[in-house]
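We emphasize that the prediction below concerns an isolated chain of 244 residues; any contacts that depend on oligomerization or on bound cofactors are therefore not represented. The input was used exactly as deposited, without trimming of termini.
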Amino acid sequence: MKTVFTRTPTLKDCPTHYCPGCGHGIAHRLIAETIDELGIRGRTIGIAPVGCAVLAYNYLDVDMVEVAHGRPPAVATGMKRTNPDKIIFSYQGDGDLAAIGTAEIIHAAHRGEQITVIFINNAVFGMTGGQMAPTTVLGQVTATTPQGRQTTSEGYPLQVSELLALLPGAIYVERCSVYNPAQIRKTKKAIKHAFELQVSGAQGLSLVEVLSPCPVYWRMTPVKAMEWIENEMTKVFPLGRLKG
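Result of the prediction step, given as a token string:
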């Protein structure tokens, strides 16, 4: 039988800890494929913070650093400035990047730091119990919004990509998703482009936002979660390239 699909070398051969239907595993593979295709495995350093993204170092066979909640852009800044020959990327969830780390990502982009950011947006705090995140959409039920998010009490969803695209130090910003094979291929292309910019020496921050499912805390089946991204989440977070 002809082999048509194999594990890319940078993706470790190990069991997953993620919940059934979670999108993190897809994102891990796309990052690993990109690193292998660009031949930068020995030069790459990843940064994983607190949250569901924290165990990315279990799956990506590159040097990894675990940092405090919300601080990957700050740590990435120091690492890149002291090791300009290295390829530095952060892997962050919405609770990390868009909540406690909002100032970190905005100022890193404002300074034009030469780093790559992979932003996984599943519109909820996953690891801590399904609480409302800054990216939770209006009407969405979470552990802390049992009646659904309301503008009068919880405000509006935070559109991080739109904010960063306004800053001159952000050279590339794109929002993608993983809700079907076509979108996964587009996400792979975006992630690869973001890494290529850093490899080429382009000065500035690149960010790829990935709309990703969290079936457990969305209280949906994996199939319904993918449909919800396509039919509802993209209304608030439109897919496409915002800059670069």
